Known about the structure:
Layout: H1 3-10, E1 17-18, E2 27-28, E3 51-55, E4 62-67, E5 79-84, H2 88-101, H3 109-122
Antiparallel strand pairs: 1-2, 3-4, 4-5
Amino acid sequence: MSADLSWMIIRNSNAFLSKKTNIKKPFSKEPMNLTNLASKRYNGLVHDNSIGVESAPNNKGFTVITKKRKLANKPGKSLVKVNFTSGPRRSLFKLRKYLLGNNYRKDLIQASLRRASAILESQKRASLTLKKLGKSKKPDA
Length: 141
C-alpha cells in the first residue's frame, strides 16, 4: 500500500494519536516518530523507510531503530536496532555518518540528531552545587 493512501486512512484516527482541545496540530506517540507531531512527513507507520531514536539500556547513549525497505511486509523482521554509546559528540557524528551511508531519508537526519542530542542531554548527571559555609565564630566562654 502506498504511503499516501496509508496516511489518508490513519490521518484522523489511530491508536497513537493524542488530540487536545486547544492545540491546533495533534501529537503522535508512535515509536518511529521523531518529532511526536502527527504529520505524514514524520509518521513512521506509513513509510517503508523510517528512523526512530530512543534511550539505550541503562541510560548510556541512545539506540537508533531503522526499517529495512525490503522487509516491509514482515514487520517483526524489518526493524534494525543499533546502539551508540561512545560519548555524546562522537555518537552524534557516528549517527549522521550511519544515516548518510545507508541512504536513509535526508529530511529526517536533522530531526534524528536533535532527538539523540536531547536524549544525551537528559542522561547527564545533575551537577551538585555545594554551598560554602562561612566559618562560624566560636562563642566566647
